Amino acid sequence: MGSLKDQVQPSPAQAWKRLKDGNQRFVEGISEHPNQDSSRRTLLSGGQFPFACIFGCGDSRLAAEIIFDLGLGDAFVVRTAGQVIENGVLGSIEYAVEEFKTPIIMVLGHDSCGAVTAARNAAQTGDMPPGFIRNLVERILPSVIAPSLPPHAHVNDMVREHTRQTAMRITEQSHIVSDAVLSGEVAVIGVFYHLRDGKAELVFSSQDLTLPNTPTGEGQSPTTASLPVSVKQQPRIVFAETWGEASPWGL
Ligand SMILES: [Zn+2]
Fold this sequence. Notes:
The protein is an alpha/beta fold.
């Protein structure tokens, strides 16, 4: 690997493929553990150029570099319990976009999330948790009472909803992110992680992440380049098959 200055960021679709491929290796038990040796460490002592910004739940089972088979310098990682947004989170994500031009921002939720479960319990009982945990729960509540949820929704349905809403809120609240999404330079995606089998399931994307069938070399893929201008007002949504009926707009 050459100097960091020689590196060019991949397109959003290429970045997603790298994350998806790494997760597939992790699922199959054939992780390569890339970029974790002393030469990589030495190279990065002069700077960083992460290709992904991953904003996930702080759950100890959700270590981004492990579940996407990444190494040092690959991902700029931001975590809070229940992937709750606050100003420091938005600033951190904006920093990744401004400073490193990271082409993909992933919101990462997971099944059986304790923070989302606490928000569901608070919604059902009216009892709020103590201390600053209340602050977390309050910010998750809109996702657990969303009209788009099915009756008697499972907590995992709520996590999917919360992951989508969080991804949309980042784009809505940050001009830096929304401008980058509008230009096609950045995709904001939502991923639901399955704790038992390790699989990362795409539940939201601000744009089509399909790579073209024919190689196009460096730069943006045709799919990315042909994004509609209206993406800022109404991002294109990619659902998992089981979520094709759900409305992403219920708040
Ligand atoms: Zn969690």
